[in-house]
Amino acid sequence: MSCSGPRAAPGRTAARGLRGSYAGPDPGSLMALGLPKISPLLSGKETMPQTSVVFSTILRPSCSAQVQPGMGERGGGASSSGDLIFQDGRLISGSLEALMEHLVPTVDYYPDRTYIFTFLLSSRVLMPPHDLLARVGHICLEQRQQLEAGSDKVKAKLKSFSAKIVQLLKEWTEAFPYDFQDEKTMAELKAITHRVTQCDEESGTVKKAIGQMMQGLLLSLAARGQLQELREKLRLPAVDKGPVLKAKPPATQKDILGVCCDALVLAQQLTHIELERLSSIQPEDLMQIISHMDSRDKHRCRGDLTKTYSLEAYDNWFNCLSMLVATEVCRVVKKKHRTRMLEFFIDVARECFNIGNFNSMMAIISGMNLSPVARLKKTWSKVKTAKFDVLEHHMDPSSNFCNYRTALQGATQRSQTANSSREKIVIPVFNLFIKDIYFLHKIHTNHLPNGHINFKKFWEISRQIHEFMTWTHVECPFEKDKKIQSYLLTAPIYSEEALFIASFESEGPENHMEKDNWKTLRTTVLNRA
């Protein structure tokens, strides 16, 4: 069931700005909300950066993640000096073969963990994981054969080499366990571990490490399978066709205010839901977006449904929350109560901002900007909109959502120096985060003119994904209220048609276009009946 709703009214910009293209360079200034529930994100004196927070990092001459030049000097001279290019001590490009060799340990070398994560994450844009693992296994086998053919002193290093190979595989299975859902990848893993141990006379330690690694991997895959089964059982909120011409729900019917009338508590429960859904997103899910967009996307790691399900489910949550907000407002019969409902959601969005839950904040603003809600001029005239205007200002699409990015930067800084678990929460606007990854991919090529992989690009993408994953692992500090969450997740949501009917019945059409739309809508509904 798709929860995407009607378009925003022309008078409002927040929802339209999120779903549309990036706006032009019309800078705004940040306004503080001044809510001391927890330490504020930013003060009103903060200056607005002239360059997008996200893109400024890639425009610098060097990338943020570091690999020391000495780390490229692998034992045995496995790669020539021209195969890996460093700039100011940072790896910025290299041939695919050299980058793969840089991943594989030797007797005297082990790759930096940041490099391991970045290369394993980005390599899936270039080849499927099972192909990479097969090539890694081949390099390992070649090195092992060289050691076996050497002197007794060299052979004595076999155990140390085997332990490093197992450690690399362990880091792979822990960082990207779902690569091994693919039978080909799992088969390659078993083949490599078999070769690592088959010739060792004293391989008890190595075998034990392999056993522990495989046990951890199987537990991760089992948890993934259980999560998918649970998702299939959980149904999305039902689409309520809503009122059929002068048949609004009775005043006694439960609404959100009947379940929770405390804006802070509702914002906390929304944050619970956000973090639960974020926790199911994996780094490779985000990187798969690039794989789908890449012109050479003929290599597919898994089925499309498996690769994108978590992302689609999370995006659907945003749309459903927006539609729930619109439903709660439009189905209220009395104008006084609609006014109260709007002011309540404004307060909830405000509390979400202070918590650092920007995604729920944007979803709520988007819901109030949908045409059936935004056109209720008589209702809006009774609403104290000063707080709503501040919220919309933070989501102003001007200058590539510069105001929002400044607030996000403030939340990130607060998280990094947090004294409490509440201050660690950062939930970005997911659609904008995905757009940033998309543009990073589009404005920088995968390959340089000399044929090298543009690793500087992948450093930056990996950095942003790693930061995002850090946010997803934050444990929610708020007490869970099952009653409130059940309502948020299962309350019926009006269809787009039902929202317009409820809106027109609350406040009749005011111009020729609205009158024509209302007439067409009534005719459609009556004919269907």
Strand order of the largest sheet: 1-2-4
Total beta strands: 5
Number of helices: 24
SSE series: HHEEHHHHHHHEHHHHHHHHHHHEHHEHH
Q: What percent of residues adopt helix (DSSP H or I)?
A: 55-70%
Taking all Cα atoms into account, the compactness measure Rg is 27 Å
Poorly predicted regions: 7-81, 295-307
- Main sheet makeup: 3 strands, antiparallel
- Give the N-terminus to C-terminus distance in angstroms: 23 Å
SS-based class: mainly alpha
> How would you describe the shape?
elongated
Strand content: under 5%
What is the average per-residue confidence, as pLDDT, rounded to a whole number? 80
Distinctive features:
529 residues, mainly alpha, three-stranded antiparallel sheet, two-stranded parallel sheet, 24 helices, 3% strand, elongated, Ras-GEF domain-containing family member 1A isoform X1, guanyl-nucleotide exchange factor activity, Ras_GEF_dom_sf, Ras-like_Gua-exchang_fac_N, guanine-nucleotide releasing factor
